[in-house]
Amino acid sequence: MNLVFVGHRCCDHSPSSGYDQICSLFPEAGWLSGPDLAAGQLTWFRQPSGGSTSLTAASHQIFHVFYGDCSGSALPAVLRARFPQATIVCTVHQPASRLVGDEAARASLNAADGIITVSETQARALARFGLTASIHAVPHGVWTKAFRPVLPLTQDARDNVLFVGNYLRDWNATKQIVEMLAVAGVRSVVLGSAAADRLRTSDPLIEMAPRVSEAELALMYDRAAALVLPVLDATASNAVLESMAAGCPVICPRLPSLTDEYLGDGSDAYEQSRYDVAVSHALRYVGHPERRAARSQVLMKRAEIFDWSRLLPLFTAVYRDIITGTTALPR
Question: Within 10 Å of residue 16's Cβ, how many Cβ atoms?
C-alpha cells in the first residue's frame, strides 16, 4: 500500500495525542507537510520506507489528508490536480452542523475519493449532505499507556475538578460551572491556552493551569475527581480519550458521539444549559473515592477499545474499501 499522510501536528496536543498518531501505525508510509503542499512544496516530515520521495503525476499513491474539513481543506484539490492517478482520503473532524454553511469545505470533501469520520453519528449526519465521496467511520484513538496511572488505582479522595481544551468549548457554560463549584467549596483546574482570557476571575478556587508536560497532564487526570467537558458540540475529543485512559470520570453534554460511542453510556451526561446537573455529577465524585474508583475501572477498560493499536485493522480495511469503491454507508 503506497500510503502518504498529509497534514501537521496541532501545537496544543501532547506528544502522544492528536490524530497524527495514526502515522505511527504505518511506519513505512510517508508523511508530508500540509501547509507546505498547499504552498506548492513537497516537504517530508517522514520519508516513505526505502527513502524514495519520488512522486509523479502518474504515481498511484493513497494520500490521507488530516482535517480535510478545516485546516486541510485546500489539500484535496491540490492533490487531485498534482496527482490525478492518486486515491485521496480525507478525515473529517468537525460536527456535520459546522459544514452546513461552509460550501468551500463541502467542495473540498467532494474532491476526495473517500471520507473518514471519527464517529458513526457524524458519518450518518454527513451522508445527508449528498457528497460524492464514500463515507467511512473509524474512531479516534488514544495511546492508553501514556495516560494510565503509574500506580494502582487508590481510594484516595480527589478534591478538584479538571477542565481541558479549547476547541468548541462552551466558555459561558464553563464559567457558570466553575463558579457553582466554587460556591460548593470545590477547586476547578482549567487547562487550555484560551482559558485565562475567557475566564477572567480572581477566585482562589478557580485555577488557570499553564501549558504542562504530558506526564504532568496524565497526573492531573489521575488526581482529579472528574473531567468536566462543557462543549457546544463534538465528534471525538482527545481530552475524553485521555481521561478515560487515566480512569478519570468524564462529565459532558449528552452528545451521542461522546456518550454513546466513546464513553459507552450517559450516566455522567447533562443536557445543554443544565449546569446544575453537571455540577451535581461532579460532586458525586468529589470526596467519594469509592464511586470514582468504580467508574475508573469501567472507563479504563473501555478505553482499550480505542487504543491506537486496536484501530490499525480498521484503517487498513477502510483504505481497501475506498480503493475498490466500496460504500460504507447508504447514500
Answer: 20
User: Which residue type is seen at 244?
Assistant: M
Domain extent for 272 = 144-306
C-alpha cell at 9: 501536528
Spacing of C-alpha 222 from chain mean position? 20
pLDDT in the model for residue 331: 40
Q: Say how far apart CA 296 and CA 247 lie, in whole Å.
A: 4
pLDDT-based confidence at 153, cuts 50/70/90?
Answer: low
- The verdict on residue 330 lying in a domain is no
Is 31 inside a domain boundary?
Answer: yes
Find the length of the chain: 331
Separation of alpha carbons 267 and 274, rounded Å: 15
pLDDT tens digits, one per residue of 262-278: 999 999 999 999 999 99
With respect to residue 329, please indicate whether it lies within any of the assigned structural domains. no
Is the backbone of residue 230 left (phi > 0), alpha (psi -120 to 50) or beta?
beta
CA distance 213 to 15: 9
pTM: 0.94
- Rounded CA-CA distance 110/221 in Å is 39
SS3 38: helix
> 148 and 135 share a domain?
no
- Do 31 and 150 fall within a single domain? no
3-class DSSP state for residue 242? Answer: helix
